[in-house]
Specification:
The protein has three helices and 30 strands. It is α/β, with parallel strands linked by helices and about 425 residues long.
Length: about 425
């Protein structure tokens, strides 16, 4: 009997010991798994905190809301630091999603590295991204001289007044440049204008203005064909500070006809021509008006010619169509074009910025440009003149940003980021 009791006691003791061992093992494993899960969760959270900080910094540098101070190669600047890392830096505030430090380090004169550390509890994750930095060119600087990416060729009695840069220069014995001749690339990466047709306009069909007649184009409307016959007058009323947007598929202003901006408002006329634009002999657009209040966007591919004694006052923007300012015609304002051919010929006069970075620009036979020329190549011949005049910069400046002509601010090209 005593022997049986002893056996039972041993069995119970062994069973309890085994259960305790299993329990301790299970508790240890559970605790380890819990800690592992927590570490994994915290590491994931730290990663996303760092990624959020990285995206914040990339977006800020990209849109200009974060401007880096001047830092030398090897130097580091803290863009943001949460309280857990020390005193907060700057006035930018990142959402309180965790502890984060965002720093930028200059590697070379034109390359920087963004390094972002995220922390959640004891877990840390670091992300880094490289960025190539390109300094923008201000409008005043870019328009301080004539700029040609290719050859500058001056023939018979050609004259250029003002500093000019080009890849090479060819001058005959009677040509002259009154200014610095700079062999080198343009100051900026000049791009053709980017623009599109407006949408949501009310369709109005066709409109014809008879000889000596008059009519008006309605605001925020689209037309198919608009023709203004000899001595007719077509008016666009601007009553207030709102822009008047009009789209016309084909516009023809014939001999001695006029297209006038009327009204006392300060808004702009924004006129889009989809396919063809014809301004015949002695036709006038916005004659004696404000340059910046008449914007003409020509989307067509057929060449545009400002004919004999015709005039346009405003900003003319064309897509790929060749542009010719013909016999005694006058463009007062700016020509911004993505075409490959521009001619100012036979006593034609352009006063303003001639922006044609892809074009061969020909100024000849007493043709004249008073302003700044930006061109692919420039040929001036037979008493042609190109004279520096920067008075129209203020009215040209809004087009730089609106049409994406070149970068005026520091820009960054980001590369694939890595995690560690």
């Amino acid at each position: 009997m005593h022997s049986q009791r002893g056996s039972i006691l041993v069995f119970v003791t062994l069973t309890v010991a085994i259960l305790m061992i299993v329990g301790v093992t299970f508790a240890t494993a559970t605790t380890a798994e819990y800690r592992s899960a927590m570490h994994h969760t915290q590491g994931t959270q730290a990663f996303y905190i760092a990624e959020a900080g990285l995206n914040w910094a990339r977006r800020g540098l990209g849109n200009g809301s974060i401007v880096l101070p001047s830092i030398g190669v090897g130097q580091t600047h803290i863009l943001y630091r949460s309280a857990a890392f020390g005193t907060s830096v700057g006035t930018q505030v990142l959402a309180d999603i965790g502890e984060v430090e965002i720093a930028v380090r200059r590697l070379t004169a034109s390359r920087v590295e963004l390094v972002v550390q995220g922390r959640q509890q004891l877990a840390r994750r670091t992300l880094a991204v490289l960025a190539d930095e390109t300094a923008g060119v201000g409008v005043d600087t870019a328009l301080g001289r004539h700029q040609v990416s290719g050859v500058v060729d001056l023939g018979n009695h050609a004259v250029i007044n003002g500093d000019i840069s080009g890849s090479s220069f060819v001058l005959d014995s009677h040509a002259v440049i009154h200014g610095a001749r700079i062999v080198g690339p343009p100051l900026a990466s000049f791009a053709p204008p980017a623009f599109s047709l407006p949408t949501g306009l009310t369709s109005r069909g066709t409109l014809t203005v008879n000889e000596h007649g008059s009519a008006s184009l309605l605001a925020n409307s689209s037309y198919t064909d608009v023709t203004v016959r000899a001595h007719g007058v077509l008016m666009i009323d601007v009553p207030d500070s709102n822009d008047v947007v009009i789209s016309v598929r084909n516009l023809s202003v014939r001999e001695h006809a006029r297209l006038n901006r009327t009204g006392t408002g300060t808004g702009r006329v924004i006129l889009h021509i989809e396919q063809t634009l014809t301004l015949s002999s002695h036709a006038h657009v916005n004659q004696s008006g404000h340059i910046e209040r008449m914007l003409v966007y020509y989307h067509g591919t057929t060449g545009f010619t400002l004919s004999e004694h015709a005039s346009l006052t405003g900003v003319l923007v064309t897509n790929s169509a060749p542009v010719t300012l013909g016999n005694h015609s006058v463009l007062t304002g700016h020509l911004i074009t993505g075409s490959t051919a521009v001619a100012v010929d036979n006593h034609a006069l352009m006063t303003g910025i001639l922006y044609a970075p892809r074009a061969r620009v020909d100024v000849g036979n007493h043709g004249r440009v008073d302003g700044v020329v930006i061109a692919g190549t420039l040929y001036v011949n037979n008493h042609g003149q190109v004279n520096i005049a920067t008075g129209g910069i203020a009215s040209f400046t809004p087009s730089v940003t609106a049409l994406g002509l070149w970068s005026t601010a520091t820009s960054y090209s980001f590369h694939t980021w890595g995690s560690r």
